[in-house]
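# step 3/5: fold
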Amino acid sequence: MAQSSSNSPQEGYSHEATVAAIISYYELLARVHPDSVSSLEYPPPGGWPQITPESFSILGRNDIVIELMRHIPYFTDDRITFMKSTTPRNFAGESFCRRTHEASRIYNEEPRPIPQDRIGANPGYAPEGEGEPIPSSMFTLAVLAQEQEEGYDILLDTEHNIVIVVRVGEEFPPGWPPVPPDANHIKWDRDDEDEAEGEEEDGSDGDDSEDSEEDVDLYLLGHDWRYSPTYRIDTFFKMCQEQWRVMNWMPKMEWVGQTHEEYLFEESDSNTDRCTGLRRKIMREAGWPGTGEQIGLGWDKAKAEKEMVELI
């Protein structure tokens, strides 16, 4: 299950706090990535006018999600990385909005209700196989990058004030999670049905199963978002910022659009030019993690980019 060991009460969703957390993280991404892919566009004071409940109705998102989409900034280049092999969505982009507006117009004018499976229960998110659709209170903030076979999908749920980290492709890397999931356990729709089906298939009552809730490994369960690590929104973005600060995540500036991810690492002077140690050395000598209160302020990104390009 998407869960944690935390017993503390879970704070409710805040639109203002979530917008602020996303803006802060996106501005860090702009500071750490090459300028060629770091163009961040902010919404006008009233929000993106092209994003409304009516014009986005085909996506099946509730009004709270649409309001969040309206008020966050977006990167204009899809080569920016949210985390390794993961691209932040751009719901304000001209091409996306044109397609979505037309599909929503047809949907809104349809005299007969369109079956639920024909509307966009998963905007930009297609679970492997027969995955369970995400609820209307949830949307994909970031998805697996194009032409990548493994990475992450990032789902944000406004109803429960959580972010779900869905691993795509291979299992989670060694050292994951850098911060334990801290969101309270959530029992999603169909969980009871799935558990009942599983008990019928294995002929047990589930009490002594090796896959019981206490024994299951959340980081080896594959693609189902309901069984993926879950964080409170604030915790998730603080965790992401910290991974860049300590250089568990680093931009591969010589290969625009790629991010290096490594959690278990012991530095050594014997590292070759392709190793984590040299990349970290380049960033440190360029002044990372910066000199200001915010991570990445005041470092020499141009110097780091030049030296990483020379690694090729």
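# step 4/5: annotate
Residues 15-186+222-245 form one domain.
# step 5/5: archive (pending)
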